[in-house]
Amino acid sequence: MKKTGLLGVIACAAMATSGVYAQETYEIWHYYAAGSELAGMEAMIANGNASVEDAQFSGVIIPGNVVELRRQLQTAFLGGQPPAAYQSSMAFELKAFADGGRLHPLTDVWSEIGGDEIFPEGVQRVVKVDGVPYGVPFDLSLINNVFYNTAIFEELGLQQPTDWDSFTQTCTALADAGYQPLGNAGGTFWSLYNFYAPLVSVLGEDGYYQLASGELGFDSPEFSEALDLYRDMMVSCYADNWSGKTWTQTADDVINGDTGMFMMGIWVGAYFEQADFLAGEDFDVFQAPGTVGKSVFQMDVLAVPEGTEAGIAAAEDFIVAAASPEGQAAFAVPKGSLAPNVNVDPSVYGYAGARFAEQFTEASAANAVLPNLFFLLPTAVGTELGVQIERFAIDPSDTVKAELIATLESLRQQALAEDAYISW
Amino acid sequence: MALRSLMSNRTTRTHLAFLALPVVLFVTFYIYPIVSSIHLSLHSWDGFSPAMRWVGLQNYATLLGQPRFINAVFNNITWVVFMLVVPTGIGLLLAALLDRGMRGEGVFRIIFFLPFTIPAVAVAAIWRWMYEPSNGLLTTVLNLIGLGGLSQNWLGDPNIVNFSLMGAVAWWTTGFAFLVFFAGLRNIPTECIEASRIEGATPWQTFWKVSFPLLWPSTIIVLGMSAIDAMRLFDVVWAMTKGGPAYSSEVLATQMYDLAFGRFAMGQASAVAVYLLIIAAVIIMPYIYYMSNRVTESEAE
């Protein structure tokens, strides 16, 4: 009996003291599986672990992209085992899960970090659903820059194009010299991101947002004009066989000196640097015609699923650390992206990062910050837009153009009937 | 009363006890998901909202009106034909060649079967590199041997992409057909082969008149598995092209995945799943029925 009692006391003491030493580990789900992206994510999580005292965080990689992460999340929600926080895209990606009652509103933590002060207005509007913040930005990439091989430009005596005319002249000069003028890659996103330049050229910022809110139709003369501009200025300039390449293969073509220019998100800059193809020496950038002084951006945020109180509290502590200038820089520098927090010292960036930060600051001041249209549109419309623009880039015939317009307009009408559009 | 008398039999109770676990597993992991998918296909649901909206057969009707869906069905049927003919045919040919007792048979056996052991995602990564249209291995080799004009935009041309995918899948799956046929050939009694040779049959006649007919148990397995694999094809296509460019290489399974997780249309994705089940049943069940009859007849003989 005595032995039993003693063992009981020891067990109780052990259980009582274990809480002092053991820390709960919470999962942060993301799809940054390799290279500079993984380095950035690991640095952000390490910063969170160093900053939050009574919780530990571990990154869980869901290989793939936003689609694979959605699949894993849906399964986790059904099973009642969501992560503490996860990497989400902006706008409709947040709205879909928030409308489903799956996301925890981040009103308190947003107030604590001063979200309305530290993030530019253009960024804020795509993380709030009906005025309630559901995501905190940590990863911002501009998608309206054209990267080019400086050696080729120097060899041919080319200057950075500033408008569509000079862009076309540059394409012609590159092609005449035996280079592939403009790289692109197959997939739902890349042709669409290229298309934003002619789209903004024609529509301007207001028209861009009107298209995003469903006010402007895909059967409008303006959208048709944007397609024509894209066909004449960019599609005609694309490298041979671009649709059979991944973006990294096209980036390799730029590094190898086969391709002169490549319009891609700024993550390609980090890819170049990893291959010792250096910014300001081997490659440089310019804003695509029609977007000079503006910034079209893609952004990732941290979202917190509804769950246990302890899990939500830990996730909010993690977000406070991730939103700080140190946390934002910890991610952005290795990843090669921009920190959305305006208080991050621009000196943390290299040559390319400093250029992008300057562009974004200038665009924010001019209220010319445009979030990726793909995520501003209802999910079905945005996804189909990406597919149809790629199809048009492969076959820019009038027949395909007409089918593209009919398909997208039909989806727009359907989304309007379902009241799916919102104004960001 | 009849049930009670049946259950009073000890042997029957033992049999039922043995059957209970597989039946429970079958119902839980096979019947329930099918019923659940059918139920889901009659609703509109994004996959995470608490409520589903009843839409009846609307998802089915919507799909039938979409060229995208029809294209995926056509692609799946094309894949069935391809899988029944190409990997099976090459596998049979390789097995027949190796069965002649050539030197280094063990090494060749490993070489032929090795691709089948590689995971689908790795196969996709290898072939994405092979198919890079400018500097990939395939294009480079064609250029080296003076056939550069045959180079294609392997994965980026909607008219070519399915053939490219089939090339990768042929390389990947032929090993399975080869191994089954090879094992089958080795199990054919040598007396039959020797008798045919004594009778003056050529090697060609011996193979087609003696070996091949005796191979039918292997043929059943290979054709059945190939047809099923073709209908549920997903991983290689998704990892290599995601069904693109512009839906050109899409099959029903990749479309289902895109609808469910790319567009939050879980009800429509479930309708695709039900269509896939029906189409697979229509294509494959007659074959299964015919072959099971053959087995019964064979056992009777």
From TrEMBL, chain A:
<keyword id="KW-0732">Signal</keyword>
<feature type="signal peptide">
    <location>
        <begin position="1"/>
        <end position="22"/>
    </location>
</feature>
<keyword id="KW-0813">Transport</keyword>
<protein>
    <submittedName>
        <fullName>ABC transporter substrate-binding protein</fullName>
    </submittedName>
</protein>
<dbReference type="Pfam" id="PF01547">
    <property type="entry name" value="SBP_bac_1"/>
</dbReference>
<keyword id="KW-0574">Periplasm</keyword>
<dbReference type="InterPro" id="IPR006059">
    <property type="entry name" value="SBP"/>
</dbReference>
<comment type="similarity">
    <text>Belongs to the bacterial solute-binding protein 1 family.</text>
</comment>
<dbReference type="InterPro" id="IPR050490">
    <property type="entry name" value="Bact_solute-bd_prot1"/>
</dbReference>
Automatic annotation (TrEMBL), chain B:
<feature type="transmembrane region" description="Helical">
    <location>
        <begin position="269"/>
        <end position="290"/>
    </location>
</feature>
<feature type="transmembrane region" description="Helical">
    <location>
        <begin position="16"/>
        <end position="35"/>
    </location>
</feature>
<keyword id="KW-1133">Transmembrane helix</keyword>
<keyword id="KW-0812">Transmembrane</keyword>
<feature type="transmembrane region" description="Helical">
    <location>
        <begin position="160"/>
        <end position="185"/>
    </location>
</feature>
<protein>
    <submittedName>
        <fullName>Sugar ABC transporter permease</fullName>
    </submittedName>
</protein>
<keyword id="KW-0472">Membrane</keyword>
<dbReference type="InterPro" id="IPR051393">
    <property type="entry name" value="ABC_transporter_permease"/>
</dbReference>
<dbReference type="InterPro" id="IPR035906">
    <property type="entry name" value="MetI-like_sf"/>
</dbReference>
<feature type="transmembrane region" description="Helical">
    <location>
        <begin position="206"/>
        <end position="228"/>
    </location>
</feature>
<dbReference type="Pfam" id="PF00528">
    <property type="entry name" value="BPD_transp_1"/>
</dbReference>
<feature type="domain" description="ABC transmembrane type-1">
    <location>
        <begin position="73"/>
        <end position="285"/>
    </location>
</feature>
<keyword id="KW-0813">Transport</keyword>
<comment type="similarity">
    <text>Belongs to the binding-protein-dependent transport system permease family.</text>
</comment>
<feature type="transmembrane region" description="Helical">
    <location>
        <begin position="110"/>
        <end position="130"/>
    </location>
</feature>
<keyword id="KW-1003">Cell membrane</keyword>
<dbReference type="InterPro" id="IPR000515">
    <property type="entry name" value="MetI-like"/>
</dbReference>
<feature type="transmembrane region" description="Helical">
    <location>
        <begin position="77"/>
        <end position="98"/>
    </location>
</feature>
